[in-house]
Design a protein that fits this description.
By secondary structure, the chain is an alpha/beta fold. 33% of the residues lie in helices and 16% in strands. The protein starts with 8 loop residues before the first helix and ends in a 5-residue tail after the last helix.
């Protein structure tokens, strides 16, 4: 009678050890993504993408420089100072990415979202190899010709993995508003939630108002960053035109860890 070959107990122990190590690495990564140490510098990788494949967007991308994004750094540092929280952001503009990121799933099933998230993580990892460093946050900036694309789809950013896709207009006239959108998605990646009604786009009172204590309440003069819109009345709003019209209120500051809950 042949003896059945038994697996070595050492191999089983090794396999369990590897699985435990992977689990620890994943848990540690999730914990770090949810508990940012703001005393450390934040490196942000920006990758432009020609979203509509037009010559106009291509010419716009060709002129982009890292200095174009410095107003975002100044704004976030200024707002963080209101909460006695020093922050240091450093942007690195990567080469234009020719391959589009995986499209967001049409359905909202848990499986389709998880599958998209895994694909997006791999896509992001591929682009990060170019920089030679692992940034704290990676954003893919998809630019569109406003003459062709009058309205843009919602941008998205994930806290777990710190990565996002930001839809922007390829227009110098839109630069200031583009910067607001980028800052908005950046804070999503650090835990901030939207402060507007997803069905109407209207800022939510009081969290989404620039100055909820203002009297009379309308029209508001500023927008909360995570709402992006200035409330003109209970049913009407307009997008902020520049950082001069945008503030970060206490709810958002708590969510990202600038202020203790």
């Amino acid at each position: 009678m042949k003896k059945t070959k038994q697996k070595s107990p050492n191999w089983k122990t090794l396999r369990i050890g590897i699985l435990l190590f992977v689990l620890i690495v994943v848990v540690k990564g999730v914990w770090q993504d949810n508990n940012q140490d703001w005393r450390k510098p934040i490196f942000v990788a920006l990758y432009p993408i020609n979203g509509d494949q037009t010559a106009h967007s291509q010419n716009y991308i060709a002129k982009l420089k890292e200095q174009d994004y410095l107003p975002i750094v100044g704004y976030l540092q200024s707002e963080a100072e209101n909460y006695q929280q020093p922050v240091q952001f450093y942007f690195k503009l990567g080469q234009e990415v020719k391959v589009l990121p995986p499209a967001l799933p049409e359905g909202k099933s848990v499986f389709s979202v998880m599958l998209w998230s895994l694909k997006f993580r791999y896509y992001t990892w591929q682009q990060q190899q170019e920089l030679g460093i692992k940034p704290n946050l990676t954003l893919f900036l998809k630019y569109y010709d406003p003459a062709v694309q009058r309205e843009l789809k919602h941008s998205t950013a994930l806290q777990n993995g710190r990565m996002g896709i930001v839809n922007l207009f390829a227009s110098d006239k839109q630069n200031a508003q583009n910067q607001i959108v980028i800052a908005h998605e950046m804070l999503h990646a650090f835990g901030a939630t939207d402060k507007y009604d997803l069905s109407t786009g209207q800022p939510i009172y009081p969290q989404g108002y620039g100055d909820p204590q203002q009297s009379p309440r309308y029209p508001q003069k500023t927008a909360e960053l995570m709402a992006g819109q200035i409330a003109l009345s209970e049913q009407k709003s307009k997008m902020a035109e520049s950082f001069r019209q945008v503030v970060i209120n206490t709810d958002t500051a708590k969510e990202v860890g600038w202020l203790k809950p």
